[in-house]
Amino acid sequence: MMSHDQILITGGTGTTGSRIAKRLIEQGYSVRIASRKKGEISNAEYVYFDWKDEYSFTPALERVKRIYLVAPVGVFDPSPYVLPFLKEAKRLGAERVVMLSASAVPEDGPVFGALHRAVRGFPEWAVLRPSYFMQNFINVQHRMSIQTEGQIITAAGEGKLGFIDADDIAETGVRALIDIAPHNTHHILTGPEALSYAEAAEIIGAAAGRPVTHVSISSSELQNRMETAGLPADYARFMAELEEAIRHGAEHRVTDTVKRVTGKEPRSLDEFAADHVSYWTR
Q1: pTM of this prediction?
Q2: Whose CA is closest to 67, among 5, 129, 14, 1?
Q3: Which of 33, 60, 129, 266 pairs as cysteine with 12 (C-beta 3.0–4.6 A)?
Q4: Rg (CA), the chain
Q5: 140 Cβ partners below 8 Å, 6+ apart?
Q6: Architecture of 6-130 per CATH?
Q7: Residue 68: beta bridge partners?
């Protein structure tokens, strides 16, 4: 059994990391957040950290037994950054790593595959593989097109996804970090139902009180849009290929993992939309 050692959160100012950090602090755990900038979470220790600066790894990892790992975002091959970090974590005595991945990426797939293998090299581990975040509808990916045009634009066609609230991902991550028995598994995480983007648009439109529609484009057009928005070409191609896979049913599934791990039912998109109407008003 681990003591209440300090838990390191990489990506601690991000969508899941910040939520996990707050929950751990509320439960009395000592939290260290590794970030290039200091955030606003009370009672957390902030330490400078940059994936491109290996000299920042050791100070972040000292006296840490458990790690929540979020790889650098938007990087097609994060292994040159993350593998040295995990090597240093192991050298300094880290015992448990909980990593954020994605349900759409196979265990040995691109971007995360090498990291999956490295994480399994720790005595205690878990990989969180959520479906698409409900928060994508209120953040940069879809918020503006919903707000200004009443549109959700994807290359997923009529493919369905188990959209999941980041709060449910965080609750699962907390359990994976603090449960006495290590999970030592991949957790495929979804919300309570699989929906197409057209169905999601109807739900959001009903909550917002105005029409919202899904506009289906080709994967090549999506890739071009992402590159124009600043994503590297290889990562934009990877993201477009994921949506093409969704079009053909790759994400059409619902799991009971959130309920099984946390004891709570995952939040529905109807509930999420009702609570976030202000994000879609002009």
Answers
A1: 0.95
A2: 5
A3: 33
A4: 19
A5: none
A6: 3-Layer(aba) Sandwich (3.40)
A7: 9, 98
Task: Kindly report the number of other CB atoms within 10 A of residue 171's CB atom.
Answer: 21
Dihedral Cα 13, 254, 143, 71, nearest 10 deg: 30
Task: Give how far Cα 14 sits from Cα of 24, 59, 211, 215, Å.
Answer: 15, 21, 31, 28
Q: Is 64 in contact with 32 (CB distance < 8 Å)?
A: yes
**What average pLDDT values come out for the chain (282 residues) when binned by 10 residues?**
75 94 96 91 95 97 97 94 98 98 90 95 98 96 94 97 98 98 98 98 97 97 94 94 95 98 98 97 82
Q: Classify the C-alpha dihedral 34-38-40-43 as positive or negative.
A: positive
Q: Contact at 8 Å (CB) between 142 and 243?
A: no
Instruction: Note whether 79 and 51 are within 8 A (CB).
Output: no
How many other CB atoms are found less than 10 A from the CB of residue 210?
13
Helices 15-26 and 166-178 cross at an angle (nearest 10°) of 50
End-to-end CA distance of the chain: give it in Å, rounded. Answer: 52
Whether domain 134-162+191-252+267-282 has CATH 2.30.30.100: the reply is: no
Structural tokens at position 95: 């015992």
Per-residue burial over 58-70, b if 16 or more Cβ lie within 10 Å, else e, is eebbeebbbbbbb
The one-letter amino acid code at 242 reads L
Q: Tokens 């995480």 — which residue?
A: 189
Q: What is the DSSP letter of 72?
A: P
